[in-house]
Amino acid sequence: MGWQERDWAKWTEKERSHLVGSTTGARPGAFLAGVVSLVAIVVFGQSALHHPRNPVPIYGDGRIVQVWGHPSTCTKLEDLPSGATCDVWRFLAPHQPALPASPLQAGTRCAIIVADQASHRWICATPS
């Protein structure tokens, strides 16, 4: 049996509207509004969501290196007998700057040094 022979195919517009709702579709202008909304999201939304206008800088050693394919900067140092080595690499967002943190006060010795993002300084996490 073809679809034209089924009972629902023989309904009048009034019967169809009563049983399943209106078949006239969306209101006039709804399609255009949807297209304009999508264009606005693509043009303005993507740049606002993924590329903030003024990204907050990350303070650390100031270098930008690739770690697992992501631009990163060092924000924690461990002072080993062989010298200071980076212990924590922080990923940067697109266009996010990495700035050098102010150095520790002269004569300060620490086993672990972290870049404090609030004061923009290197601080002791654990005194040595």
Commentary on this structure:
The structure is a single chain. This protein is α+β, with helices and mostly antiparallel strands. Helix content is 23%, strand content 34%. It contains two helices and seven strands; from the N terminus they run ααβββββββ. A hairpin with a 4-residue loop joins strand 6 and strand 7 (121-127). The longest helix is centred in the first third of the chain and has 21 residues, at 30-50. The radius of gyration is 30 Å and the shape is rod-shaped.
Order of helices and strands: HHEEEEEEE
Instruction: Quote the beta fraction.
Output: 25-35%
Q: Name the assembly state.
A: single chain
Radius of gyration: 30 Å
Helical run tally: 2
Distance between the termini: 87 Å
The percent range for helix content is: 10-25%
Mean pLDDT: 81
Label the structural class: alpha+beta
Total number of strands = 7
Uncertain segments are: none
Question: What would the principal axes of the Cα set say about the shape?
Answer: rod-shaped
**Biggest β-sheet: count, sense, barrel?**
5 strands, antiparallel
Count of all domains: 2
Provide key terms for this protein.
128 residues; alpha+beta; 2 domains; 5-stranded antiparallel beta sheet; two-stranded parallel sheet; 7 strands; rod-shaped
Outline the fold blueprint.
Layout: H1 13-20, H2 30-50, E1 58-60, E2 65-67, E3 70-80, E4 83-91, E5 98-100, E6 110-116, E7 121-127
Parallel strand pairs: 1-5
Antiparallel strand pairs: 2-3, 3-4, 3-6, 6-7
